């Protein structure tokens, strides 16, 4: 079956994480939305419809990882296609439609099956008549969820972790587990090859599975509560407390207390401080003592500050959304609903603003645009510390975020 994964025009609600990546490349559980879409849609070939500025990203970083034919921003041919929103979160195999049909939500197309030669990514982005006429197809019940914002992915992470562990570890030979540490519900704990668990660690899977990937390291006297995923070669510092529903990406360095948060790869929160109900991009570095509040004193629902708007989450617990390459100084304090855009430096000694647009430097002197030469050197230095080369593709990515972010974050 030909499957088309499209972004659509609602992607800005996933900023700042989607300023430099397609919405379907956001992580949830132990994988990305795209991984789950590939897993359950039964595609024999894939077409990705994305913003023009992300074509390069898809061709260099997504398509090479696929084992089936794939292309980017190519119109439909004369074969029927399953059109799926990139915001779709699947938890089970999708039943292929037998007739042309559509599933909608709030006047948005979630999934459609149709034969429409010439339909293309611009039709979706512009929501023109060619796209909207799909709404007239026979309506079917949805078989999946469609995330509206990052707050949904955070709230659904517990289920996503459980589903991923069941699928990815099904039938796998479980390595032997032994060591001077404590396990509760050992049958739901998976420790990968060359992972290190130091003495005094407590792995508590009584509320959900714990997966510690290959090469990861958990420091002495740490407590890990499931469901939880610790990615390849990640480091959990001694005396850390990782509460349930956390996804920690590859090569992250984590310390202190974390709850119900998603952290993408190569990010560091290596010191004391609380992180709760938050979503962090790649290459983030928290200074010692950085704290994210995730509950208002009034116990009312948290909204996310974004430019001149307040985006409602309808959730009592919500922390911060933090873009790639954000750096915070020691003792930084972030209030519920903070938005820190791509490549910000947060160095002031008072409570940080709830909204900082991309490429912003905030200090006790106030807010100013980040000097791009300094910002670029900071990003390149982060790569160099991990023996990763800064490439032309990275340079193009920074340029497109510079162009896109002001319009989205106004």
Distance between the termini: 40 Å
Counting DSSP H or I runs of 4 or more residues, the number of helices is: 8
Indicate the low-confidence ranges by residue numbers: none
CATH first level of the largest domain: Mainly Beta
- Lateral strand order in the biggest sheet: 13-16-19-22-25-28-32-35-37
What is the 3D shape? globular
By DSSP, the count of extended strands is 39
Give me the CATH superfamily of the largest domain: Hexapeptide repeat proteins
CATH architecture of the largest domain: 3 Solenoid
Q: What does the largest sheet look like? A: 9 strands, parallel
Query: Nearest-angstrom radius of gyration?
Result: 21 Å
Query: How much beta, percentage-wise?
Result: 25-35%
Helix content range of the residues, please?
10-25%
Number of domains: 2
Mean pLDDT: 95
- What class, by secondary structure content? alpha/beta
CATH topology of the largest domain: UDP N-Acetylglucosamine Acyltransferase, domain 1
Description of the structure:
This protein starts with a strand and ends with a helix. The model has no long low-confidence stretch (mean pLDDT 95). It has a nine-stranded parallel β-sheet. A seven-stranded mixed β-sheet has the order 5-4-1-6-9-8-10, with helices on one face. Helix 2 links the parallel strand 4 and strand 5. Helix content is 19%, strand content 29%. It has two domains: 147 residues, Spore Coat Polysaccharide Biosynthesis Protein SpsA, Chain A; 255 residues, UDP N-Acetylglucosamine Acyltransferase, domain 1, CATH 2.160.10. It is α/β, with parallel strands linked by helices and 410 residues long. It is built from eight helices and 39 strands. The longest helix has 17 residues.
């Amino acid at each position: 079956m030909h499957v088309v994964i499209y972004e659509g025009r609602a992607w800005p609600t996933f900023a700042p994480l989607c300023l430099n990546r397609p919405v379907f490349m956001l992580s949830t559980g132990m994988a990305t939305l795209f991984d789950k879409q590939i897993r359950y849609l039964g595609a024999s070939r894939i077409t990705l419809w994305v913003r023009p500025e992300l074509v390069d990203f898809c061709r260099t970083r997504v398509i090479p990882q696929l084992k089936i034919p794939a292309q980017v921003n190519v119109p439909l041919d004369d074969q029927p296609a399953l059109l799926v929103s990139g915001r779709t979160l699947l938890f089970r195999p999708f039943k292929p439609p037998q007739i042309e049909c559509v599933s909608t939500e709030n006047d948005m197309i979630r999934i459609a099956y149709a034969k429409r030669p010439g339909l293309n990514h611009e039709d979706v982005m512009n929501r023109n008549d060619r796209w909207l006429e799909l709404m007239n197809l026979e309506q079917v019940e949805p078989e999946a969820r469609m995330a509206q914002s990052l707050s949904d992915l955070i709230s659904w992470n517990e289920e996503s972790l459980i589903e991923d562990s069941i699928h990815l570890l099904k039938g796998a030979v479980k390595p032997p587990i032994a060591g001077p540490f404590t396990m509760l519900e050992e049958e739901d704990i998976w420790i990968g090859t060359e992972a290190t668990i130091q003495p005094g660690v407590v792995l508590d899977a009584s509320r959900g599975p714990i997966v510690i990937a290959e090469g990861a390291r958990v420091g002495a006297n740490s407590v890990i509560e499931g469901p939880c995923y610790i990615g390849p070669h990640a480091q959990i510092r001694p005396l850390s407390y990782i509460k349930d529903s956390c996804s920690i990406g590859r090569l992250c360095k984590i310390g202190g207390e974390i709850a119900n948060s998603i952290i993408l790869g190569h990010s560091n929160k290596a010191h004391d401080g609380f992180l709760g109900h938050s979503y962090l991009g790649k290459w983030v570095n928290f200074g010692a003592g950085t704290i994210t509040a995730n509950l208002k004193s009034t116990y009312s629902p948290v909204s996310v500050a974004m430019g001149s708007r307040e985006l409602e989450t309808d959730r009592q617990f919500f922390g911060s959304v933090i873009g790639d390459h954000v750096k915070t100084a020691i003792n930084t304090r972030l209030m519920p609903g903070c938005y820190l855009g791509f490549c910000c430096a947060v160095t002031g000694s008072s409570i940080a603003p709830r909204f900082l647009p991309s490429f912003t430097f905030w200090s006790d002197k106030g807010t100013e645009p980040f000097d791009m030469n300094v910002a670029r050197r900071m990003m390149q230095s982060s790569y160099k510390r991990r023996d990763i080369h800064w490439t032309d593709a990275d340079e193009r990515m920074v340029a497109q975020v510079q162009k896109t972010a002001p319009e989205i974050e106004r």
